[in-house]
Specification:
The chain is of the alpha/beta class. The protein has eleven helices and 16 strands. Helix 6 packs parallel to helix 7. The chain is globular and about 65 Å long.
Length: about 375
Amino acid sequence: MLLIKNGHVIDPLNGTDRVCDVAADGARILKTGENLPADPKDNVIDASGCYVVPGLIDHHAHVQPLAKIGLPTEASCFASGVTAVVDAGSTGCANYIYHQGILERLRVNVLAYLNVCTTGLDSLPGCLEDVNPAHWDRGAIRECFDRFGQKAGGRLAGLKLRTSEPIVKDLGYKVLEETVKLGEELGVSVMVHCTNPPGPLADLLNLLRPGDTITHMYMNIGPNLLNEKGEVIPEAWEARERGVYFEAADARAHFGMPVAQAAIAQGFLPDFIATDTTKLSMNLRPTAFSMAMQIAKYTALGIPFEKVIECATVNPARQLGLLDRAGSLTAGHPADIAVFRPVDMETVHGDRPYGVPEQHTIVGHRVYQPVLTVKNGEMVYRDVTF
């Protein structure tokens, strides 16, 4: 048995927010409680002074082998407390199938959105994807979901579209209209990338259905979340009210510090906090570094730590239909656990000057150091200091 003792356990689904112990028997959570007894044969870990949380879910990244520019999946995920990751449209209907064998051998749980472009982001960097609906292979897209969709026991969670003006060109929001229509036909949700949109962000939001996700919610390139008075646009509040999800997945170019600060001050918080990192952007300061750095950034922006953990565990698990096996420390569920040590130190968080005149930064005063990651009861990452 693995017994993690004396940590401050944060489990939003079960309402746990206290110092206690977590026990895993084999691959499953056994129980959570105070002063759990240890057997001499148990692997006992003292997590005093640390937070113990469900394994994180990075709802938006680009991973190997699905993307040529993808993260080194297990190394990157496990080292930042991530036990499940969602690839956001790296592949399309022509190439998703060829990666199944590798995905099955990975210990980290990989889900994926299927890009409406036949080849996904396979041409990046260099060439933008072809999202013209006239060029979609609708039959092959349907076949992918029939074979590999979550309803068929597979990994495909929905459709992905990047609706930036340089990608959709003069087609504008017609591409998003067709994507949503196809999602309706297939019975799946849509994730839409909104950076540098081809028209008012309000028009984009009005096209989304309950269960769809707008990612890069705090971007600052082109029409964004704020109006000319610096207020969150009414259509954003209305979209949230009808069940649209808002995701902060920042990468390098998809986050504007002033937008985030203004929206958060008005109470417009993310549903999901993710990274959108690739091997080109991982570990770069002062932008999105990893899920651990996203936690540090959004707490520095004033979101309570418990809420940030909710946005990285139970919220994406619910949207992905994984609440029976991810996102919590519920007894009987897979033993996916992350342990973070709070470290008081100054850290600069910032956006990236891309299409805007200057970089904006803030100084945070605490980071959360990943010190242990457990996947299915197995320690897959442990910091040398822990």
